[in-house]
Each structure stands twice: as structure tokens, then as C-alpha cells.
Amino acid sequence: MDMLGGITAHEFLRDYWQKKPLVIRQAFPGFECPVSPDELAGLACEEAVESRIVIENDSGKPWQLHNGPFTPERFSQLPAEDWTLLVQGLDHWVPDIADLLDHFRFIPNWRLDDIMASYAPKGGSVGPHYDMYDVFLLQAQGHRRWTFGGHCDHTSPRVQGTPLRILSSWDGEETVTLAPGDMLYLPPGVGHYGVAEDDCITLSIGFRAPTLDDVLTSFTDYLSQTDSAAHHLDDPDLQVQENPGTIGPDVIDRLDTVIREQLGDRRNLALWFGQFATAPKSMDIVVPADEPAEPDDLAEAIRCGEQLRWNEGSRFAYHDLNDETALFVDGEQYLLKGDARPLAPLLCAASRLDMTALAEFSDDEALLGLLTNLYNQGSIYFE
Ligand code: SIN
Ligand code: CO
After folding, report:
1. Mean pLDDT taken over the chain
2. pLDDT band at 1 (very low <50, low <70, confident <90, very high)
3. Which domain holds residue 368?
4. Cα(128)–Cα(345) distance, integer angstroms
5. What domain count does the chain have?
6. Is the pTM of this model over 0.90?
7. Domain JmjC spans what residues (predicted)?
């Protein structure tokens, strides 16, 4: 695969993914950044966009963080150098940025977090730090000097007096300067420090996995909303006990059985996970269609050869169960049975749906109903 500097996706996953950094020169030859610094500043002024400014020396205080949205005037009050603007979820707001994700489809859709942009004038950086997720740092405009290496964790010493987790005594192992089109892959926990050499935009394609805390909390939350969760523990075999204060081993056994039964349900686990892993990060990402469509409208559009695509912020995934296929789109679940099952892989394979393949289903009610739902929910649209 060209984007990986001559190694295959298989080799990348085997040798680098979650293991060690990789510098890829000209991963995207001739890359032109789809957004300008002014456009990033404009996005950072919008309510729905998550943005931050990091200033290295903010009136004497180290590495200060300011959360957006900002006013346009805020940008004229910034120092000439040594600050960074971060804009989160750029794939959702800029279609050309979302298209970059098509190069990363060898990693499952559910692993994708988002694409963040950082803009910095000369000297700007967010400080030496480590992240808990895999990231591809694509140099989009200007140049950035990256120092990276060494594994860090919560015990690594940090700079005091800043809300950011900046490493205080860390040297890194390697230094490279990236030019537009170059890319650096970093696994979780590897320290890194990127300093802008000139007017610089870097795109972070981030792949965040849930924490065990997320998994436990969210799955038990899901289970607690199922019908069986409303049942009370029963004890028809209750025996007289000497001390009313005793909680006997039989009670603990019963609890143990109930919890194991609930947690051991793989079908529920799969259904929960698909919804959890595709849930939109904010309410602004998947917005219902202005004009709801009817199945006939979808059929007509497919016949006319129109191109359907995922909403830029949408997440599609599916899981084959024994007798049905669960399709997950933006935190919603659709159970497909029988002839409808192949629709799930078809809808999940690429951001632009394979319209030739869809046309074969164009008088299938299940497909048209499903597409209508997805369209009205705001997860797909006609390009
Ligand atoms: C940046 O692009 O300035 C920061 C990205 C990162 O270090 O994760
Ligand atoms: Co980082």
C-alpha cells in the first residue's frame, strides 16, 4: 500500500500497529491541505465545533489551555508565536478531510475516533506528551519537527501549573522534520513533541479504543435497560437464620449466578458493543434530514444512478449473529434477517455506497425501508 511507504497493510499491522512508531515520507505525495488556517479559525468560532487553544507561555504561566468556541477577536490577541489551535472532529465538518479516511479502511471503522487539525505559527506546539490512542500525524501544510520515542505512563513526571499533561523530563529518541504529505504513526503511550517550524497544519487521524472502565460502565448500563433487569431477586427457599444480620453464602451465590448469566450473554454483548462503538460523539454530528424521504424516493434515486454516501461524521459497522446480522449506524441497531443480511456488509464497506450492488436490491422493501431510515436519520445522503 503506497500510503504506508511501500509496506502492505498486513505488514504494518503486524510490525508497527500498537508496537512502534513509523515515519512515512510522502505517504500522500503532493498533499495539499484541504483547509486553510483561516478556515480552522472560523470553525473554532462555531458553537458545534470542539476547539482549543494552547499557549506555551501565557503571561508567565506554562502551557495554558483555552476552550472554544472563540470570538474572531480572540485570534488577534494571540502572541505572534508559540501557540496552537486544535480543531476536533474535522472529518465531520470538511468532506475533503473525511475522504482521507478512505485510506485508513484497513483499520476497522469502529476503531476510528476522528481527525483533529492543529494549526500553529512558528514555534507552536502542545508540549511533550503522550496519548492513549494510536495516531497518524499527517503533515498537511508547512513543516513540523517531531521528537518521539520512549514509553510513558501515568507515573511519568509532569510539568506543574498546567491543566495539560505535559512531560517534564523526557528527551525522546528520534527527531524528524515532516513536510507536507509526510506522516508519522505513533502507538499509544509513546512520548512525542512536535514543534512548528513555520506556519504549520498537522492532521491527527486518531484511533481510540475504549477503556475497560468505558466497557464495564456502558455494558452494565445497557443491561440495566433490558426487560429482564426489572426483575427482583427472589428467595422462595428462604430458611430461618440465627442472626437476622447474617448475609448468607446462598445470597452471594445467587448474586453470582445472576450476574454471570447477564454478563455471559454474548448476543447482548455484541448488540451493546455495536451501538456503543458507532454512537456519535455529539448531537450535532448526525442531524435528521430537512425533508424526510419515502422509500419510493430512494428507489427512484437509485434507478437514476445517484450516489449515496455516509454522512461525514457517521460510523457504520455490523456483526454476524447466528441467524441474523446486526447493522449498527450511529448508535442505532438494525437486525437483518434472511435475504436482507448481505445489506449490512454492503452498507459498511466504503463511505460511497456501491450503487451497482444496491441497484440489485432496488425493489426490495427491506432495503428501501432501511435506506429511508438511514437517510431520514441523517446517516447517509445523496452526493
Ligand atoms: C499537534 O498536532 O500539534 C498535536 C498532535 C499530537 O501531538 O497528538
Ligand atoms: Co499527541
Report:
1. 95
2. low
3. 295-382
4. 41
5. 3
6. yes
7. 96-224
